[in-house]
Amino acid sequence: MSDYSVRKSLLEQIEQERSSRALLYVTGDRPGMETQISDVIDMVVDHLDTMWPANRISLILHTKGGNTAIAWQLVNLLRTFCDELEVVVPSRALSAGTLISLGANRIVMTKQAVLGPIDPSLNSPLGPQIPGSPHRAAVSVEAIQGYLNVAQSELGITDANALASIWNNLSAQIHPLVLGQIYRTRQQIRDLAKRLLEHQKVELQQAEKIVSFLCSESGSHDHAINRREASELGLAVEKPSADFYEMLRKIEASYVEELMIRVPWNPDTQLAGNPSIDYDVPRALIESTTHGSHQFASKGTLTQLSIPNPNGPPQIGLKDERKFEAWQKVA
Questions:
Q1: Is the Cβ–Cβ distance between 285 and 259 less than 8 Å?
Q2: What pTM did the predictor assign?
Q3: Which residues of 156-186 are buried (b: 16+ CB within 10 A; e: fewer)?
């Protein structure tokens, strides 16, 4: 059952505290049932229409990232519905979530909140095959550049033939069309980030430094940027008041509990000895005080299978029959 009524009360308190309209967007990161920023534009428009006109919108964001093109579209959409946008981070807004944050007038971060690098990884049907798996690996945009930098800067390779050989070896592992798309994506993400930073009134030279750090100089896509480091980078960061902090802790506790973010999804555990069970798992949320709650959910049936084995006893398998996987309005 949805705890929207609890969060609605907290969103109302946040709107009073911030003199704004509040929008909650959570992409759940429950292990085994993770979600990412994806095409939610139509649903967000439904919420924004009911907020109009709004002087300020407070986007309360929890995400590990997702589609950077959608992140760009989303932040620009939000800005068309208000005069001032702030992104509020109770816990984490990583990767594409950080890109959204760059487009806000300010980023409100709790003591434990983190942002992250915005170097994207490219998923492609032409990507390298994962050994022993039918799936293909995502290719990190900055990892490719790092590989080439090692050859030139660290190993001092400058001979044209040697560099051509290195490039040929790379293209033998990663399809040339993927490499081409990677370089386009690398430049695009830098351009988008610089354009978004204009809303924080960051001077061009400082914006270049911020983008370079977020795209490559942080050293790893897993690097966590806390409130102090974000402020030292030059981002427009604000600390929440004591009362606002308590509101954010409560609303985070509510969506963490509803989406069971800290409880891994394990089909064997879900079955718990039963031959078959139905499941209904909420995985992401978009909510406001003016237009209720949208929830992304997966519904289906888990069944334990007995697979004949000519060389011994039957093997035990699992069948996951996914019957529904979409957004739905629940309140």
A1: yes
A2: 0.88
A3: eeeeeeeeeebeeeeeeebbeebbebbeebb
